[in-house]
Amino acid sequence: MYVGIDVGTSTVKAAAFDGSGRELAVAARPVGLSMHGGFVEQDMDEVYGAVVAVLDELSAEVDGPFELAGLTGQGDGVWLVDAKGRPVRAAASWMDGRAHELLDQWLADGTFETVFRRTGSAMFPGCPGPLLAWLAAHEPAALDAATSALYCKDMVFQRLTGARAATDVSDASMPFLDPRTRSYDNGVVELLGLTRRRGLLAPVSDPVATAETRGEGLPAGTRIANGPYDLPACALGAGVTEPGDGLLIVGTCLASLVATTELDLSGEPAGLYISLDRPGHWLRAMPAMVGTAALDWVLSTTGVRHKEVDGLLAATPPGAGGVRVLPYFAPSGERAPFVEPRLRAELTGVSLESTPADLIRATCEGIGYAARHCLEAAGLTGSLAVCGGGTRSPAWMQLLADVLGRPLRIVEGEVGARGAVLAAAERYGVPLDAGAWTRPTRIVEPDADRAAYYSAGFEDHLGRLTAARHRSR
Q1: All residues at 6 or more sequence positions from 300 whose CB lies less than 8 Å from its CB, including other chains
Q2: Helix H segments across 282-355?
Q3: pTM for this structure?
Q4: Which helix (H) or strand (E) holds 385?
Q5: What are residue 130's phi and psi, to 5 degrees?
Q6: Fewer CB atoms inside 10 A, N or C side of the chain?
Q7: In DSSP terms, which residues pair with 318 in a beta bridge?
Q8: Residues 6+ apart with CB under 8 A from 432
């Protein structure tokens, strides 16, 4: 039996699988986010406590020992810890927007583009480069007190195992890792004014680090692997490994990923190249800030419950009665397939005749257009898998297939945890049938007439987005 741990932004989960990849049980616990004035932070002790709690719950629910465990979690942000992995301050989330003015400066003076040309990383306010530079300027004492600036899963791994602080090539990819050498680019560190803080960057384990647990949550001696982080873990869990194939994660973050063996650092700086355990293989990633959080906000504002969404989508025709939504609600703006820290959501075409169903459908359509934009920018040419919380809505999946104009391979369940187990099995040399573990739940085909309608709607979306980007500057 195997366990995958996925330390998400709002929920921590652990899932148990048998040798064929069948999901046996899942334990989940919510964790809080503190949001104020563009700052988005998390309590590390709460996050780690949630990991231990879900593992305790899972161990009580299923019989038998775990052969091995795989760990994944949210990426980016800054998780400052001491030598024992204990927090020196609250974690700054990937959703954090405090460094937007610094990023504006780097966009204007060419630093942003230079970093992309060297590492393939288009920085955004919530990634470690801007956040560490902001902390160096405003909270130097916190950096002085820290031993390491980790990522979420690395903090959990260190505390579960007692192993030295380390990260992997996937988490290190933004923004300091040279994707060709698979090591930190010290020129980028210097360019961002962080040479004095270079020692805070955790050593990169290549391939991912392994260790044995100390007894919290899992029995002492359980073998565990640290990574990759949640985006590449989901790609593994959805079977996206062949160049040209893609994955769309419909979650808090709308992440578009395309497997590739080509590194192209030309063109408009956007997204990032996520390095994988296999040298010469990357995921071209467009992790947009837009996602289910946008729909959650509209549902909360209109007083509509999640269980009502399918019925409302089915009862509302394409075009949402003329309502249009640019769904860029994040306080840090957007980061893919372009970077606009000041971009905000826009609702147009709303009148007294507009209904909550119109607003909800227009939001789902807007998210679909954003997904299409990201997937095209990432170079999708093959099949497309879809996972994440949004897959629980059949009507939304049909709408997405229509907006994207292509079949969707729906992969349900704890896909990130599944991928973490597959990565751990590869690291430990445990043979698992990846095809069986990543088999899609169902295929959703697009409707030809609706796909044609949305193809024109996508062009309209791009035009409105271009105008909004100009207004945000």
Answers
A1: none
A2: 292-302, 309-315
A3: 0.91
A4: strand 384-387
A5: -60, -40
A6: C
A7: none
A8: 19, 21, 421, 422, 425
